[in-house]
Every structure is written in structure tokens, then in C-alpha cells.
Here is the input.
Amino acid sequence: MYMLMIEGIRMWITSSHKVFCGLLLLFAAACVLQPVMADNRTITISYRGSGGSYVGDTVVFDGRNTFGNTTLLRITGPGLPSKGVPVNNLNGVEGTATSVGVDQNGMWKFVWYASTVPGIEKLATARYTFTAVDSLNPDNSASALFMLRKPEYSISAVPNPSKPGDYIELIGTAEQGITSAKIDVKDVSGAVLHTFTSPVGFSGSLSYGFHSDMEPGQYTVTVSNPALKAPFGTTISVVAEETTLPVTTVIAMEPGSAPPTKEVNMVITSAQVPETSPVRTPGSPLTVISVLVTGLILASVIRR
Here is the structure.
């Protein structure tokens, strides 16, 4: 009986030691291993639409930023610095960006009125990258590729070159769906001589005519529309009419001829007049008869 009591106590001590050791190990693990908390902070960028537009169109960009209160937007791509420029000023300092506020829900929104952006003419038909960066955490950013297409316009003048007073017709195409276009005629100094407004057809066709009243020289015709920052155009040449010179021809007659000297006016071009050989005037019949009579008289005298 005594031996059984001793064995029960030993087993209880052994089991209690194991439990104690287990609790001790759990406590140590709790002190060493820190709980891992999920970081839900994020920054995103997206755009409204199909992912592309014409250069000069209005585009809406928006996204989420839970890092801070300000989102920075910049654009990179063909014709722009490698470090990007502000989306609201393509002539801005390289590496800078446009500041956009973040609301209480961590959302931001930016409406890109591209037609009013300085330097918009630098953009070509290509894919551009729009990047959103947190102002306080520049390593946290998001990017979106956006296809921009420059409208393909063409304009030509008929006839070209033209002469003062000619009727000049401007024929062209405007790919973008505009209903009218402004036409400016400028001289070499950039002064606007004429301004016209031409309708544009549904298919983009453009045709406008006017009578030229410009002096001989080079002129620039530009076609523009408020939806497009950079106009397009062509150069026309106005040349002078061919110059003319009056030429007086005097017909010289031998004595005894009936018509008197007469002045004739002719109009020829300014090209060099070829030299002509002098024209010999044949002798008159009276002169021939006088020579024959003189010869007969001399022959009679010699015979005597």
C-alpha cells in the first residue's frame, strides 16, 4: 500500500512537470514571435473609357490612395522627358508632377482637359504611361498605359502656285469628328491676312475657296479647331503675271514706194528677241531702165 502511494505521487510530479514545461514553451514562443498584421494600404490608377483617345480629348483618371492625402500624377512617353512631366503642363520641369487631393475615403480623381494643356503639341500617336505616386511615399506608385492618337489632317491648295486674282480652292480631310474649321492665311511675317470659317462634312471632308488678292510671295494656310491645340496647314505660292513689253517696228520703204513709214505695236513676252538678218530691198524698175539707156548711148558714141 505504501509503495502504491509513492508511485502515484511520482507519476503526478512527472505529469505536472510536463505540463509546466509545455506552458513554459508556449509563453516563450509568444514572447519571441510577433503577430503579423496585414498592410491594406494601396495606391491605384484607372481611366474612364476604352483605353485610348485623340490628342486633345478630355480624359478622366481616378484611383485609390490609402498611403497619404495627396497623389502626384505624371506622364511619360515619346516626345517627353524620361522622368516624366506634370500632366497639366507638358512644358514643366522634368521629374515634377501634378498634385491631386485624396478624399476621406482614400479616393482621388483628375479630369485631364488636354486641349488646354501647354505643350500638348508634343504628343504623337503612341502609348503613354500615366503614373500615380503618393506624395510622402514615392516608392508607392501605380501606372496605366493609355493610347493617344494624333488626328491625321491634310490640306492642299489648287492651283499652287497661283496668280493674283486666281480662285484658290482648299481641299482636305479632318479625321476627328468636328463640324467646322478655322482657316487663316498668313504672310511670311506671321501676320493674318484673311480668316475664314469652313464647314466640315460628316466624313471629315473639307473644301473652301476664295479669290486671291495677295501680292506675289509665299503664304501659309493654317486650319484649326478649338478641340485641337496644334493647327495643321500648307504653304501656297503666288507668282506674278508674265510681264509684257511694247515693241515698235518701223518699215523702211525705198523712194518711190507708195506706203509711207508706219508704226506697228506688237506685244511679246520678255524673252530675248532673236536677231534677224537684214532684209535687202530689190531695186525699182525705173533704176533698171535708166542703166540700159545709159549703156546704149555710150555704145553709139564709141562706134562713131
In short: The helical segments are 2-32, 285-303. The two ends are 215 Å apart (CA to CA).
